[in-house]
Amino acid sequence: MTPLWIDGQLILARRIAVSGREYIQGCLLNWPAIKTSLLETIEDLLPQADLEPAAVVPGQLDARMLAALPCAWSPGP
């Protein structure tokens, strides 16, 4: 599954083949709930941290990107 943003929605999608036909299969993730949960886990260390959708650029490393989701984090001031 590949995570991606479509019209502000976080999607997990993959291509599948069934009986010789190709389809795209996916699921819509609840980004507001995921964001809240992730930020709550670091709130004691970084109370003003934030997560924002970000584009993934193949071959380009960005230290602010999360490993599994196309999001960039900011530690705050």
Could you characterize what this model shows?
- With 77 residues, this protein is α+β, with helices and mostly antiparallel strands.
- It has one helix at 31-42; strands at residues 2-6, 9-18, 21-28, 50-53, 71-74.
- A 3-stranded antiparallel beta sheet has the order 1-2-3, with no helix packed on it.
- The relative contact order is 0.20.
From the structure above, extract its key features:
about 80 residues; alpha+beta; 3-stranded antiparallel sheet; two-stranded antiparallel sheet; elongated
Summarize the structure.
The protein is an alpha+beta fold and 77 residues long.
Strand % is: 35-45%
The strand line-up of the biggest sheet is 1-2-3
Largest sheet: 3 strands, antiparallel
Coarse shape: elongated
How much is the radius of gyration in Å? 15 Å
Cα distance spanning the termini? 34 Å
Give the helix tally: 1
Helix share of residues? Answer: 10-25%
Q: Report the average pLDDT across residues.
A: 92
Question: Strand-and-helix sequence, N→C?
Answer: EEEHEE
Task: Tally the beta strands.
Answer: 5
Q: What is the structural class?
A: alpha+beta
User: Segments where pLDDT lies below 50 for 5+ residues?
Assistant: none
